[in-house]
Amino acid sequence: MFDVAPTELLLVVVVALVVIGPKDLPKAMRFVGKWMGKAKGMARHFRAGLDTMMREAELEELEKQWRAQNEAIMREFPRVDDDTPPAVSIAKALPEPVKDEAAAATAPEGEPVPETHVVPPKDGPLP
To answer: For the segment 67-118, what is each residue's pLDDT rounded down to a tens digit?
Structure first.
């Protein structure tokens, strides 16, 4: 940001030595050092404030995305009634398992017939 070459710095030191004098130069340098420290502290505080604001904005954006996804899930799996817990209402919304007739015809006697589950389309439950 501030590009100061060594020759320019030497010129500033010589001018300060001539203008201020060798006796008051240490006091002036201490004064300039204190002001530089205060300026750096203010810049650090300002930057920390900006970083905090950016983190809060990112958290708000993530919360908006979470709410949108939550609403989509709630629309896809609505509660059947208000007295039923959510896990039970999702189970009620899913279709019942169907016996596989082709497997029943080819299965040997006495063996259980495997059940298949119908997956509802994304548009909603089957009629």
So the answer is: 999 999 888 887 665 565 555 555 565 666 555 565 555 656 666 655 555 5
d(CA 43, CA 50): 11
- Tally of domains in the chain: 1
pLDDT attached to residue 94: 60
Q: Say how many C-beta atoms besides its own lie within 10 A of residue 103's C-beta.
A: 13
Those residues whose C-beta lies under 8 Å from the C-beta of residue 25, and which sit 6 or more positions away, are 16, 17
- Cβ atoms of 113 and 100 closer than 8 Å: yes
Residue 16 has pLDDT above 90, yes or no: no
126: in domain:
no
Residue 115 backbone dihedrals phi, psi, to 5 degrees: -100, 145
Phi/psi at 116 (5° precision)? -115, 150
Q: Could you tell me if residue 10 is inside a domain?
A: yes
Tokens of 24: 């008051």
Structural domain for 66, as ranges? 6-93
Structure token digits, residue 77? 């799996």
